[in-house]
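Re: folding output
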Amino acid sequence: MRRRIAVTLVATLLVFGCASIERHPVPTEAMDRAIIPGMPEVRDWGDRPSEHFQEDLVQSVRDAWEVSGAAPGTTPADVLVLSGGGSNGAFGAGFLSGWSRNGARPTFKLVTGISTGALIAPYAFLGEDYDDELERAFTTVSTRDVYKIRSPFTIFKKGSLTRTDPLAAKIEEMVTNDILHAIAAEHRRGRRLFVATTHLDAQRLVVWNMGAIAASGRPQALELFRKVLLASASIPVAFPPVYIEVEADGQRYDEMHVDGGVIAELFLWGAMVDIADARRALGVTADASPQVSIYIIRNGQIDAAPEQVEPGLIGIAQRSLTTLLKAVAMGDMLRIWALAERDGIDFNYVGIPPENAESPAGTFSPADMRRLFELGRAIARQPTPWRKVPPAWISEELDKHPGQ
């Protein structure tokens, strides 16, 4: 009997393991030429200079000057960077709420988000008037509101352990036509909202100009906006990938997009734009440039947290994954800090303190998310919640002497 069961299981794995979802992927040689039909300039690779993102940066500054009526080069700019972290996103949501209550939260010139940070980003971008919606979104959901476990007989055929219909429905509730129009209006005022996904076919990060999508006026804008958010939060294998229709050389194809956290936990301009070139295009010298401040909210811990690991498969896998994500986040933060140091930008970051437990991986508990939300809110209301240099591994002296 055991032999028959084993044979049956092997046969099932072979059958379903060989099955695949029908798709029409972009030929590898055409991936650089693939665009969103009707919206060719709403995205680009996150790992190379982007001509239209560079032009958009310059135009966004000019738009902001025109709207504010301020003299060129005199308006401060604040940037918010939101990391991934699953249900730990409740921490970032709570921090933004506490920051608003302090009365010190700025109107951000640029907001970027990955994974759970991408889901926070639209509300963070629109400002403190949306704090109540953000609180509901990150304190009232449970696991069943995010995903459903698949039948073992469909896992290999469908390419994921779960279905994310509930998460897609939740994103539809969050991103309405009114939200889209509000984001489009702020985009026209010179503000920018970026979200990143991983293009799995290309093995590259894609950065999406979400305000440009919202302001495009295209009939598919709302659907694309929601799809990008879902893709950015779709952990591969655990969640199904999101297929996005594109056009290359006059033909329609699909791209496979998953969680941006596969490549980055945090992102800013990186290789995409050149700040010095933008300053020259705007006729502003580095000495005369307005103060730019970067605020990074890490939805999770980033400091090393030693503990004894259980030798079982699940314990080792979970510990390895959290260690990997911490290392990726640290690398991203170091890169942003180095760019800030180079360009004379004020650097700030905050994350879940090591003495406070993170939310268990893969679970969405309203009680635990409320705990993290209140933790973030409390930290934001402290006199000095921000750290001025990346943590732990650089040098303890940096914390004692910021800027050195």
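--- second protein (sequence, then structure) ---
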Amino acid sequence: MQIVLNGQNHDVPEGLTVLGLLESLGVKPDRVAVELDGLIVKKHEWPERVLQPGARLEVVHFVGGG
């Protein structure tokens, strides 16, 4: 199925969760925030939040420094 991730189309398997997507991308979960269809998804919801066809996600990486 198709989703939009950070403005680009991606093919992902049906039944994929937010956490599964992050793991497949090699993203460290402690350093990102996820927006799904315009709403922030809390980290405790990631394992159970199943992506739907056409879902629009923004994954934002936190960068430290000064």
